[in-house]
Amino acid sequence: MKKKMLAGLLAAAMVMTALTGCGAKDSSTKPAAESTAGAAAGTEQSSDAQAAAEDNGEVVELEFWAWWSSDARKPYVEQMVQDFNDSQSKYHVTYVDIPWGDIFTKNIAQIAAGKPCDIMANSMEEVKFRAQEGQAEPLDAYLTDDVKNAFYEQYMDACTGDDGSVYALPLSVDTRVIYYNKAQFEEAGINADEIKTWADLEEAAHKLDVKDGDRYSRIGFMPTLGNGGVDTWLINANKKPCWFDPETGEPTVNSDVNKEAFAWVRSWIEYYGQSTYDEFSAAFSSGMTDPFASGAMSMLVQTSAYTSSLAQTAPDLDYGIMLLPEFKEGNGNTVNGGGFVLEIPKGAKCPEGSYEFIKFVTSYDTQDFLCSSLGDFSARNDFDENTEFFKKPHVAEIAEALEQTSTVITPNEIKGYQDVVNPLVEEGTLGIKSTDAALDNAQKAFEDFKASN
């Protein structure tokens, strides 16, 4: 009944939108100014829109919702919005920052009430779910091949609903790599280029260990510390999502590959000892110290955004970048990643205007401006050494991982499975259960969850 009422509200909102147009208001506008973000990104379509606006003097007011309110990010977001406003005269966008803890529920409530914002920043991982739930407008009527083909395929797949329509465009993405301490590598006589497989990684790590009595003052590596969980390594081993078959949604938790890979992950904790693991884990969790930045860890799995953190916490640290090694030789360097998208909430009053803003923000020039300013990575596949962003240290090396980044999109029919699987997998990570038993238990729990949903 609730779904029918929601559908009715959305349908009514769409009818009103069709009757009233884009909700433009009269306003005298100034000629478009030069974009500071290089937003000469104007296309024939936006030029036509500008000409029409100049003819009738109407400006469409649009709201862009996101959660970036910090001094480190908000000024650049506002600059981006201003650049769009200056690049044409038909639409005027206002940025509204809403706290992370409120924005998503508020977005759904506004859609249900028939009063959504016009552009929404949202999670990439749940685009398909929001499309199925009728929370986003399809972009197909406005998309052109040159726009769709400008992004890595896996990110466009994540932005595509089960019905084949595109519901969002990628705003920013992340990936994972291994950061390593160059001075410590040189001291131990290790060549990072020779670390090709998990076995190579393990051998190198133990050459980097420093033990004072019964305590490690430095460890070479720990797979589950930093921003690499068990799933990071199992995805690497499988070259795809590890807990379920992405084609069928069937649970694959206790597969042979997963059991071998999970045992390897747990072996590191057994090697260094639970107390060492707990000590280093607590250091990361507290946020007070960073064992890699301080030199207490020689290698660390982290996201592409970690370079910005190191610039603040360890500006003099000389570090390098490695792709995650292969599970076995020839297996590939697959890693998990995600990101954020821009989409049009269902019932937005002027979808064509909202899309013009989304197209502008995801364009080559604006993405270069955002990435260079914020340190985020773009899903665009045409970034190279000509961009300002790629001139920054380590960016080109990290970008190599984007091509092999797996965006783990949960099928709608098994949404929420992590709540039953993760606690049982954690029992294996902590040694409460054997890794095989933990995966077997998680497999059964996943199957029961799927059957009941």
Automatic annotation (TrEMBL):
Residues 32-46 have a biased composition (Low complexity). Residues 1-24 form the signal peptide. InterPro entries: Bact_solute-bd_prot1 (IPR050490), SBP (IPR006059), SBP_1_CS (IPR006061). Keywords: Cell membrane, Lipoprotein, Membrane, Palmitate, Signal, Transport. One of its GO terms (biological process) is transmembrane transport. It holds the Pfam family SBP_bac_1. The keyword 4Fe-4S does not apply. This is Putative arabinose-binding protein. It comes from Eisenbergiella tayi.
